[in-house]
Amino acid sequence: MRSNRTLFLIEVAVFTALALLLDILPLSFKIWAQGGSISFAMIPVFIVAFRWGVKGGLLSGFLWGALQVATGTAYILHPLQGFIDYAIAFTVLGFAGIFAPKIQQAVKHNNTSSYLSYIALGVLLGSFLRFVAHYTAGVVFFESAIEGQPVWLYSLVYNGSYMFPSFIICTILVFFLFHTQPRTLLKAA
Amino acid sequence: MNNSLIIGQYVPGNSLIHRLDPRTKITVIFFFVFIVFFANNVVSYSILTLFAIACIVTSRVPIRFIAKGLTPVWFLIIFTFILHLIVTKEGTVLLEILGFKIYSGGVIQGFAISMRFFLLILVTSLLTLTTTPIEITDAIEEMLHPLKKLKFPVHELALMMSISLRFIPTLMQETEKISKAQASRGVDFKTGPIKERIKAIVPLLIPLFISAFKRAEELAMAMEARGYQGGEGRTKLRELKIEKRDMLIFVLFVFVIAGLFYFRSW
Q1: pTM for this predicted structure
Q2: Chain A residues with beta carbon closer than 8 angstroms to that of B163
Q3: Helix axis angle, B22-35 relative to B133-143, nearest 10°?
Q4: Are B164 and B196 contained in the same domain?
Q5: Does A189 fall in a domain?
Q6: How many distinct structural domains can be found in chain A?
Q7: In this structure, what is the dihedral angle of CA atoms A23, A24, A25, A31, given to the nearest 10 degrees?
């Protein structure tokens, strides 16, 4: 009997590598000053989340954050900001996986509209949680830099300006992807 | 084979900073990120700056690499500096431009905050400039070891980090191959309206993901064929060891902290 455990570990690792790779490819529109980019790098994390559920998603997200620190693409300007931005923000993307069982079932029954809407919901949930984390980190950071300012507004504008387009791009792409290749969603073995 | 196979910012070298145990570097930087916030006068900032400069000089990393790491934050440094000039109304008026009064307090505070960002980025990027991602991964595994008792999958996490790092160059070549193949069929990635560009990404991503699944499956099978069954009893290729030079850095750093707290104004 084959154990799924090793495959799980490896698949999460390889897909996290893809996330990191898609983030540094010139294809992504990286114009934001620090630690924020409109890119579709979140897609591999969502795929892992939809294939393996919340656990896989959280693991992949956490790994992605940790690897950004290890490869030096992370920007830490405040201890708390660093922790929230890199340890929490990417991890919570994995919560998209709570729709995994529903999506798996819909794909098996070929129910296109059903799995597409669950995918959109999952991507929305993951992106929203990540946004909340980055937003909080932004408030902490701006608070430490400029006191007595409407820091919540800065953080909202700054983080919203890339998270919102990213969410749209990811949803569209994940839509396209699974419309053409639903089998990528099905759990292996 | 090209040089882009090395992921991250690592600049190879053989300096004291390069040879330090990665755990030493991570620990020192971790505390540095905290103590920077305690600096509040000229002397305390000078101590930290001196420490940072000393580290950079001993690391013998060319300045242009360090400057490259700073590029994304210049905007932020300048932004906060200007904001301080506008909103801080303490001290004496230094200058008046178009009805805007620039106060000495604003200049001082703006400068202090910019200095803090500068120091933070300088020191944190020095870690990734002198340490390979794999060394950092090994160090994280060692440092998180106590969490094993809480059933935190430390070994698995480290294994996955190394595998990810190992696969980035492979996947990068794969991406290049696929995008060339698709470009030869007429897919245009670089120009056109955004909508078309997003659409063009799909024929790149699908083969990339499918091949990633295949690679993952092959590797998992190969590992199991060789008897991989989790972390228990595995030995390591690279062993980390704390040397005299690590102790030296720790002692030096304790002096830096002591100096900082002695000279800062309370």
Answers
A1: 0.86
A2: 9-10, 13-14, 17
A3: 80
A4: yes
A5: no
A6: 1
A7: 80
